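Journal club side-thread
Mid-discussion, someone asked how the predicted structure for our own chain would compare to the paper's figures. Pasting it here so we can look after the session.
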Amino acid sequence: MPVFSLTLKARIALITTVLAAVFGTGIVLAALHGAHRDLHDTLQEQQDSIVKLFADQIDTAMEDRIMLLTHQAEQLGGLLAQSGGANAEAVRAQALAALKRAVPVPATFNAVMLADAQGTTVNGGGVTSEVADRGYFREAARTLAPVVTAPIRSRTTGGTGVMVAVPVLSPQKAFVGLVAGWLDLSSSNFLVELLHNRLGTTGFYCLVSAGREPVYVQHPDHAQARQPAHAVGDTCGMDDRDGAFEFLMPERPVISRRLMSTTGWELVAVMPAREAYAPLHQMQQRFLMWALLALAIVAALIWLAVRRLLAPLTRLHEVVQDSTADLSAFERLPARHHADEIGDLSRAFVKLMRDVRERRQQLDRSERRLRTVTDTLPSLLAFIDTQERYVFNNLAYEHTFGMTVSELRGKTVREVLGEARYAKARPYLQRALAGAVVTFETEDPDPEYHCMETSYRPEWSADGSEVVGVHIHVQDVTQRKLETMRLSRISRTDHLTQLMNRSAFESQLQAAMTRFRENGGLMALLYLDMDRFKAVNDIHGHAAGDLLLQAFARRVRRCVREHDTVARLGGDEFAVILEDIASADTARHVAQAILESVGRRFHFEGVYADVDVSIGIALYRGGPAQDRELIRLADVLLYRAKGAGRGRYEIGPAELAGEVSA
């Protein structure tokens, strides 16, 4: 699947556009942040002015009502001072009637009330009630000053409202009662009308009472009315925190507060962010739309400008790509180049390609001459680069692998040799690529034995700093190898018996002792000497003696294992190496088998011969002993056996000869 990649023009245009967009976005965001801050300050100032005006109106209305009640309290002070005794009820009724005539109901209050110094009230029709336990009564009696309560529940009607109470003083300034006006929060009055005033379309007001346990006097959500509120910084239940990107997507409402002088209450006005910043949001949308349009236009203009500026580079790029297959492609470039970096690059490329074409032509001529010479050679010759790809090969290489020169060129050694042969050649190839000259042989017995000698010779760069490739030379050395093997076999074999000769035996013994010296285990060396061989030689001649030696060798060979070593040391002396035996008994069994086999009469070409054999068995289980010492021990044991009567064996040393199988 092809990998998608942007062209240089597209990348330059994209990077330029992105940079312009980043800087432009930074400027736009800074401008939007400033616009949001300025709009917020303006909205806050306007809303603060509105809340101040509205709070002053409520203050004025409340102050007028307090003044009205205060005036009536002054008028009724002397009358209530005479309300003691039997005529107390009549005096209270007279004072209540005067209060109702002076205070318009419901224009100012929804109801009025009069109480004497003991907290007894007259509500009309002779019905009385007690308010001495009310907080506003105790506060007015204590402070002798007007009191405006938080919302309370009426004991007579059960409704909720605000009580405005003014103490009544006697001419001697003693507390003799109070007059009060009732503002029912479920009826029409100036406090209730507060909710009917809207701040914008979705804005609203709420009124928070004073004191240690403030509550909402009025709230647009009826469920929140008379619920606890914050004495300072109340938000009417709205979240007053900034959003993550407040200046782009405002979430914090505009909140204004005003403390009322008459009651200590706080008037709070809340304008939701959605409505407050709607003009800014609309402006942002239009601004972003135009900004995106401008960015698209800028990107198109940048791309067109870059395309025009890089047109010579585009032509150069096409020619460079075509030059991989056509070395004359550079001739399609204009004769005159621009006086800029691209022009300099084009001129340098043209000069380079002329040199490359001339060198390629020289190389082709040189390669043709080289192939003329190498194609006559039977050896396989090739050259590979550092990626193990074939750069040159001769005709023998093509015939061997059944490929044409065009099929071989560019292929890797792995692809040509196959996985199995490449796995064998890979370590040598890696050493050659590392700078070493490597020669190795590979043998293949199937279908018939043949041997190939391969040489890897690295080629170094002109300055000798790195390997740039490897020369491969492969030649068939089967005949030479077979001759070498034949000569080696002859040099190691006794010509008469075809057993190992003394030289091969000594090498085999040294190797065996080295293995058992390192790995442990038990081995045995048997020295054999044929008894009465000289008599057969003297009576029947040397030819018969030779036949006897051959027959003797075959019988001994049959008495040992296939991998055991049997050698003729010279004359009628033989040796056997038994490796990895279980115990000394194994060596005894082999020696006994040889004695029995040789003890049977020999018959060859009409000649009968009776001979015996004496055997010396030297055991070895590791240790510092050398092969000469083991041979000397076996020889001593052999002559001990001869001296004891011939046709028998002796075994030692004693400490090993006593071992038995586990």
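Post-session note: The domain at 493-657 is CATH 3.30.70.270 (Alpha-Beta Plaits).
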